[in-house]
Structures are given as structure tokens and as C-alpha cells.
């Protein structure tokens, strides 16, 4: 069984809640769910698979704790580590919806991480998101501001993708 660690950056608690929901779906213990504001990037070393989650702030900016955490991760070699990404945002910020997902993906490109668990775009309504990389949505995007009723179903479906992809 692969060891999964969840690392989240959250300013007002939404991404934390989603991280906990993902943990339940994947049977990840609470001690393996980490706020990136209080752990060092090297702690990903203890996991085979790392789930990174962060909200988007400003005009499409990565949540600040996660931005610092990613600075550290970029210096590591993540070869053979499976990485899945999720983010929380607001679809009414229609040109920058969940940009955090795309920023994490792009910034970790040179670490040799193995990205898994892209998600579909069904039921979303926005103009642009950096999470869309050449037509592929590279992670789970959650809008708890406008569509909290969709969150559990989206989380469950994404966790099913992860369960299928982890080898
Ligand atoms: C000032 C401000 C700027 C925001 N900018 C964006 C944005 O550019 N794109 C987006 O998708 N969401 C944006 N959001 C929405 C937040 O990402 C959303 O509320 C999220 O759920 C917060 O998660 P957190 O509590 O885990 O930090 C913004 C919210 C605020 C208040």
C-alpha cells in the first residue's frame, strides 16, 4: 500500500476542509494531513504519493504559504513520487479560476515528479484557468463559494481517479 501525504495551504479554511474530505475518501490518517505553513518541504520524503492543495488569491496568485512551500519543493528531486494537485477558488473570478492548480503543476515541472489524477471539466463555468494545460485540467478544482453542493461529489470522483491511478 502506498503511503499518501496531503499538504495544503489555506487562508480562510476552505482548502483545509477539502483536504480533510479527501483524506477521508482515501483513508489518509489525520497525522498525514499537513498545513504547509508548519512543515518543511523535505517532509514529503516520507511519502510515495503527495497530494498538494491550495487556494487562489489576489488576481490568480498561489496561496502564500503554498507559494513558499513550493519554493522549497522546487529544490528537491521528486523522481518516482506521484503528485496530485487540487485547488479551491471562485468561478466568478472567471479569468483566474483555480490558477493555483496550474501554478503548482508548472513550478514543479523540473522536479521529475510524476503527475497523476487530472480531472474533467464537467459542470464548471468560467472563462480561463491556468489549471487547463493544453486542454487537460491537471487537478481537482473546487468552488466552495458558488457551488458547495458539488464539492463532495467532485471530491469523491477525483479520489476514485486517484485510486485507479496509484500503482
Ligand atoms: C481578495 C480575493 C481574491 C481572490 N482571487 C481569486 C482568484 O483569482 N481566483 C480564484 O479562483 N479564486 C479567488 N478567490 C477565492 C478564494 O480562492 C476562495 O474563497 C477559496 O475558497 C479560499 O480558500 P482558503 O480559505 O483555503 O484560502 C479570491 C478571494 C478573495 C477574497
UniProtKB/TrEMBL annotation:
SUPFAM superfamilies: Flavoproteins
Keyword Electron transport (UniProt): yes
Pfam families in the cross-refs: Flavodoxin_1
Cofactor: FMN
Molecular function, one GO term: FMN binding
Role: Low-potential electron donor to a number of redox enzymes.
PANTHER family xrefs: FLAVODOXIN 1, FLAVODOXIN 2
Protein name per Swiss-Prot or TrEMBL: Flavodoxin
Organism of this sequence: Duncaniella dubosii
Amino acid at each position: 500500500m502506498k503511503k499518501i501525504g496531503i499538504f495544503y495551504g489555506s487562508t480562510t479554511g476552505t482548502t483545509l476542509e477539502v483536504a480533510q474530505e479527501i483524506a477521508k475518501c482515501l483513508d489518509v490518517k489525520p497525522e498525514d494531513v499537513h498545513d504547509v505553513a508548519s512543515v518543511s518541504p523535505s517532509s514529503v520524503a516520507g511519502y510515495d504519493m503527495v497530494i498538494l492543495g491550495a487556494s487562489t488569491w489576489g488576481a490568480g496568485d498561489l496561496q502564500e504559504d503554498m507559494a513558499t512551500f513550493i519554493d522549497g519543493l522546487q529544490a528537491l528531486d521528486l523522481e518516482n513520487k506521484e503528485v496530485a494537485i487540487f485547488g479551491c477558488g471562485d468561478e466568478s473570478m472567471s479569468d483566474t479560476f483555480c490558477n493555483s492548480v496550474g501554478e503548482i503543476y508548472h513550478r514543479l515541472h523540473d522536479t521529475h515528479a510524476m503527475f497523476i489524477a487530472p480531472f474533467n471539466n464537467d459542470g464548471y463555468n468560467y472563462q480561463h484557468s491556468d489549471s487547463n494545460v493544453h486542454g487537460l485540467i491537471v487537478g481537482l478544482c473546487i468552488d466552495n463559494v458558488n457551488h458547495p453542493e458539488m464539492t463532495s461529489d467532485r471530491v469523491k470522483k477525483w479520489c476514485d481517479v486517484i485510486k485507479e491511478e496509484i500503482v
